[in-house]
Amino acid sequence: MAQQYNPNAQNIKKRYAVLVFLKGSTAPLVLYVNDYQALYQELFELMKSNQTVLVEKETEGPLKKVCFISNQIASIAIQEEQYM
User: Fold this and answer.
1) What residues contact 75, with CB distance under 8 A and at least 6 apart?
2) Are strands 54-58 and 65-69 parallel, antiparallel or unpaired?
3) Strand partners, 15
4) CA–CA separation, 64 vs 75, rounded Å?
5) 39: nearest Cα among 79, 82, 81, 72
6) N or C: which end of the chain has fewer CB within 10 A?
7) Averaged pLDDT, groups of 10, the chain, 84 residues long
8) What kind and span of H or E run contains 17?
9) What is the DSSP string of 39-81?
10) What is the phi/psi pair of residue 32, to 5°?
């Protein structure tokens, strides 16, 4: 199959977000941070721990500051988004 020419291909950028799914919530928190892998790892370690802590983060997206309790995390994910 022939590959189509896209003159705007060089303008497409990628950004990453950490999605935090909280128990009892229908939509995840979408957290845009510089070091998304470190945040993912931090939240992963909190999920494995029996200790309950208050998590407060400042982010770069629409949510500027977010706070939640670690034992309410149901799951986490990293999402890749393309934008121009």
Assistant:
1) 21
2) antiparallel
3) 81
4) 21
5) 79
6) N
7) 60 94 96 97 97 96 96 97 89
8) strand 13-22
9) HHHHHHHHHH-S---EEEEE-SSS--EEEEEGGGEEEEEEEEE
10) -100, 120
So what's the pLDDT on residue 68? 97
Residue with tokens 């939640």: 68
Specify the pLDDT at position 84.
84
Q: How far apart are CA 48 and CA 46, in angstroms?
A: 5
Cβ pair 76, 21 in contact under 8 A: yes
User: Which amino acid type is present at position 76?
Assistant: I
Reading the block at residue 76, the tokens are 């986490």
How far is it, in rounded angstroms, from Cα 23 to Cα 5?
45
Residue 43 contacts by C-beta under 8 Å, 6 or more apart in sequence? 18, 20, 55, 70, 73, 76
**Residue 35's CB: how many other CB atoms inside 10 A?**
11
